[in-house]
């Protein structure tokens, strides 16, 4: 799932981003309500996690209302210190799907995210991702090429899942940096290239056709050659 986290507290956003990425979600973070409005207008998302009290005096519920005005049914989880029953009811009436008071433990946030995913999983009705004879089992943490099992490290697994979810689309290094490494400074372009090279050696070497391709100067694409 592609998640937009709208949170102006850097520590909180890092905390949430890391947990979601470890659960194999692609995460984008913004700290401004105005940026969030631009993101939801210009792109589609599978989940929004939204702090209500944002810079500039914007109530995050304005973002929820705008999302619904655009006709988008994206699940929204509001997180806020405004946690009285009246505030929670207001959030749900304004279009949020769930409301989690702060402070929270990350296990509860993930459980609520999973519950929202189950409600809106028509697009993700199977835990299996398939491209040609490559299969990735999100729940069983297994990868096979044909009948051959492929052993991947956790970060390699997340990287392959991201590429497969974007089958046929060019994925830039910046997208990978944001989704897999969370913009850690250590993850420079050469680190990404090394990880892709290692993934290729496991997924493509000795198999046909080759599925992971370089788009010179841009990034990578995972696709059957006939679909490129």
Q: Which structural class fits the helix and strand makeup?
A: alpha/beta
**What number is the mean pLDDT?**
86
Indicate the CATH architecture of the largest domain.
3-Layer(aba) Sandwich
CATH-defined superfamily of the largest domain: Response regulator
- Output the CATH class name of the largest domain: Alpha Beta
Overall number of strands: 12
**Distance between the amino and carboxyl termini:** 23 Å
Quick structural summary:
The chain has 228 residues and is of the alpha/beta class. The protein contains 8 helices and 12 strands.
Helix and strand topology:
Blueprint: E1 2-6, H1 10-22, E2 26-30, H2 33-42, E3 47-51, H3 61-69, E4 76-80, H4 85-93, E5 98-101, H5 106-119, E6 128-131, E7 134-137, E8 142-145, E9 148-150, H6 154-165, E10 171-172, H7 173-181, H8 189-203, E11 212-215, E12 219-222
Parallel strand pairs: 1-2, 1-3, 3-4, 4-5
Antiparallel strand pairs: 6-7, 7-8, 8-9, 10-12, 11-12
How would you explain this protein's 3D organization?
With 228 residues, the chain is an alpha/beta fold. It folds into two domains: 2-119, Response regulator (Rossmann fold), CATH 3.40.50.2300; 128-227, Winged helix-like DNA-binding domain superfamily/Winged helix DNA-binding domain (Arc Repressor Mutant, subunit A), CATH 1.10.10.10. The protein has helices spanning 10-22, 33-42, 61-69, 85-93, 106-119, 154-165, 173-181, 189-203; strands at residues 2-6, 26-30, 47-51, 76-80, 98-101, 128-131, 134-137, 142-145, 148-150, 171-172, 212-215, 219-222.
